[in-house]
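> forwarded from #structure-qc
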């Protein structure tokens, strides 16, 4: 039998890579700390991706690029194999990043004054982009119910969507980790069908990280008639899944040729139609050969989430859970309300995290990124728990 592959999952010196997570903090004069904030992986991309990238580097002609069926077929096949969904490769549209696709849609399709509905807490950078392009947001609260699930209220959703132009659905949801189940997706589809002017933007960038009995499904799979009618755009990306966020490859799936043509048009209008030279070989290698590596790192992350939850839940007043999906741990830390409170916690624990104020004003919450070697994550969580205990006693 062939030896099992050895994957490099160790944590390496993270500085000196123009990193938004590490180098920027240092450049801003923040004390060095373990950064468990920005949601990208602290694992080295699979060797198969490095091989493809080395080949690209070695060539040395980093020329203008174009898209060919191999990219779209790899994107479609990944969906088919991992999510039991087969969108048409011919109708898919490359975008460098999901945020750029949303920005282009906001600017050229939705327009000034468009009303966009989404759940809160929310991944703020995309909301910021919508607002900066003139959209007006309406937020629906996602509140924890029994057993760490976040139940939906379809009446409130329908009331909000009745006069809306777009609905931004993040599935799995960042930061709560909620994975929308079949019944919920069917409920959303019913509401969307009743509000025929609404375009649904599905940001499913976390789709490859779903745990236990939970099952991710794209809304488009549950509501194929809405997808074919052009009412749903499904965004997917290998960026988080394969530690490729900075390589910039994402894809927008539609089931409608007119929407595809419109997406191509707004991409050109935004001047982002030529992919970065490294994006395409990286994405194709990841999607076609990266599955075994992904299974390996997922096991580590799942373990981090579970052990992290155990340690944090032992702190009086603190509560978290193994999320249904994502590599993110959303932690209730009552009493931490202000930036100053969070900073005090962060400094004492030597850990950077994303605090709840950055997700649309959710004091008392923080988000940890568990996609890092367990040898680093677990001691860090122990440290955080100790500080939470100590500060809890002096609060
Ligand atoms: C929910 C969600 N959407 C989108 C993004 C960013 O994706 P992209 O780099 O493709 O714009 C992130 C990154 O953290 C995210 O968490």
């Amino acid at each position: 039998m062939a030896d099992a592959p050895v994957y490099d999952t160790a944590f390496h010196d993270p500085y000196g890579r123009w990193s938004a997570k590490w180098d920027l903090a240092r450049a801003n004069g923040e004390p060095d700390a373990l950064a468990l904030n920005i949601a990208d992986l602290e694992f080295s991309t699979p060797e198969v991706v490095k091989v493809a990238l080395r080949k690209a580097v070695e060539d040395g002609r980093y020329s203008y690029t174009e898209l060919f069926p191999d990219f779209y077929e790899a994107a479609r096949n990944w969906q088919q194999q991992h999510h039991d969904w087969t969108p048409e490769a011919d109708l898919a549209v490359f975008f460098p990043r999901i945020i750029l696709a949303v920005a282009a849609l906001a600017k050229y399709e939705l327009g000034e004054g468009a009303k966009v509905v989404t759940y809160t807490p929310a991944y703020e950078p995309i909301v910021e982009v919508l607002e900066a392009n003139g959209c007006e947001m309406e937020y629906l609260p996602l509140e924890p119910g029994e057993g760490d699930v976040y139940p939906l209220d379809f009446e409130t959703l329908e009331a909000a969507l009745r006069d809306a132009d777009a609905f931004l659905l993040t599935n799995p949801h960042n930061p709560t980790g909620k994975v929308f189940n079949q019944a919920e997706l069917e409920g959303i589809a019913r509401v969307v069908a009743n509000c025929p002017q609404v375009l649904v933007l599905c940001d499913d960038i976390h789709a490859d990280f779903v745990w236990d009995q939970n099952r991710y499904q794209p809304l488009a799979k549950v509501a194929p008639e809405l997808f074919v009618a052009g009412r749903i755009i499904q965004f997917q990306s290998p960026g988080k899944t394969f530690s490729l966020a900075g390589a910039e490859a994402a894809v927008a799936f539609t089931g409608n040729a007119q929407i595809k043509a419109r997406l191509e048009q707004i991409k050109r209008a935004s001047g982002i139609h030529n992919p970065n030279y490294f994006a395409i070989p990286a994405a194709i290698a990841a999607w076609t050969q990266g599955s075994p590596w992904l299974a390996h790192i997922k096991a580590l992350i799942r373990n981090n989430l579970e052990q992290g939850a155990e340690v944090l839940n032992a702190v009086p007043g603190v509560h978290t859970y193994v999320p249904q999906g994502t590599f993110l741990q959303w932690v209730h830390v009552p009493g931490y309300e202000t930036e100053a409170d969070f900073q005090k916690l962060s400094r004492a624990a030597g850990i950077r995290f994303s605090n709840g104020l950055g997700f649309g004003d959710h004091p008392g919450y923080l988000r940890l990124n568990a996609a890092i070697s367990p040898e680093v994550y677990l001691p860090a969580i122990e440290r955080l728990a100790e500080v939470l205990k100590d500060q809890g006693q002096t609060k």
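QC bot note: Residues 39, 97-99, 123, 126, 170, 174, 203, 205, 237, 239, 245, 250 surround pyridoxal-5'-phosphate (CB under 6 Å). The domain at 61-289 is CATH 3.40.640.10 (Aspartate Aminotransferase; domain 2).
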